[in-house]
Specification:
Strand content: 5-15%
Low-confidence stretches: 1-11
CATH superfamily: Zinc/RING finger domain, C3HC4 (zinc finger)
CATH class: Alpha Beta
Number of helices: 2
Largest sheet: 3 strands, antiparallel
Strand order of the largest sheet: 1-2-3
Helix content: 25-40%
């Protein structure tokens, strides 16, 4: 079952075999077993097995591993899951989240310019 999210619901970059988003059907991180909270910022989903992790948990796990990485749960090999790709994806997600928060708060318009309230 190759169930990849599409559109605005997930952050994908190129042909990576993982994406950043939360799958509401998975209640907790497969490493720390803590439930996901709305305030958690980043989740990493693996295409090959659908296991989902907090980004900090997967980065901590991979500090102890050699690349190319495997899924911590099922040990399936990944081809593009590298520390560099994970960190790049986290940066991209944070920039997107900050941009959405600025637009929602009215500080920056959709076109990136300042709104009338702030002039």
């Amino acid at each position: 079952d190759n169930h990849k999210p599409e559109g605005d619901t997930a952050t994908r970059k190129g042909n990576l075999d993982f994406w950043m988003d939360i799958d509401d059907t998975i209640p907790s991180c497969s490493i720390c077993f803590e439930q996901y909270e709305p305030t958690d910022h980043c989740y990493l989903n693996l295409d090959i097995c659908r296991h989902q992790y907090h980004v900090d948990c997967i980065l901590g796990w991979y500090e102890q591993s050699d690349e190319p990485f495997q899924c911590p749960c099922c040990r399936r090999d990944t081809t593009t899951l590298t520390k560099e790709n994970i960190l790049n994806m986290v940066k991209l997600m944070r920039r997107e989240k900050e941009g959405m928060e600025r637009v929602a708060s009215g500080i920056v318009g959709d076109d990136g310019g300042r709104t009338g309230e702030d002039l």
